[in-house]
Automatic annotation (TrEMBL):
Pfam families: RVT_3 (PF13456)
Segments forming domain RNase H type-1: 12-96
Species of origin: Hibiscus sabdariffa
SUPFAM superfamilies: Ribonuclease H-like
Top-rank taxon: Eukaryota
CDD domains reported in the protein's UniProt record: RNase_H_like
InterPro entries, sorted: RNase_H-like_dom_plant (IPR044730), RNase_H-like_EbsB-rel (IPR052929), RNaseH-like_sf (IPR012337), RNaseH_domain (IPR002156), RNaseH_sf (IPR036397)
Protein name according to UniProt: RNase H type-1 domain-containing protein
Length: 123
């Protein structure tokens, strides 16, 4: 339904990058007024932290806490882990980020390569 690309500079840890992407998805869904969302990610650690009460990974703790503070905004929010092959659309967007100097948002219309990746993800 919607997608975005937001540049994050000086992110030197994969966990932080994945947590920031999840945070951006939740913020974008809030801005659009979605009340029920499903967030998929290929970082099992980030997905587990969002689904648990513990905060034992200090490097992503502030980001996870920020996301969790927004959960009450939604009637329903779920997080699930998908492997790299099931998350191709996100990777297509991530590779395209260098084309955009500013955040880029799409609602109901996407670049054709992203739309094709979504259909491949659904298989």
């Amino acid at each position: 339904m919607a997608a975005c690309v937001i540049l994050h500079y000086v992110v030197n840890d994969a966990f932080i990058a994945e947590a920031r992407a999840c945070e951006a998805a939740v913020n974008f869904a809030m801005e659009l007024g979605f009340m029920s969302i499903h967030v998929e990610g290929d970082s099992l650690t980030v997905i587990k932290k969002l689904s648990s009460l513990s905060n034992d990974k200090p490097i992503i703790r502030p980001i996870i806490s920020d996301i969790k503070s927004k959960l009450t905004f939604f009637k329903k929010i779920t997080f699930s882990h998908v492997g790299h092959r099931g998350n191709e659309a996100a990777h297509v967007l991530a590779k395209a980020h260098h084309c955009f100097q500013l955040p880029r948002y799409w609602i109901e219309e996407f670049p054709s390569e992203v739309e094709q990746a979504v259909f491949r993800d659904l298989r």
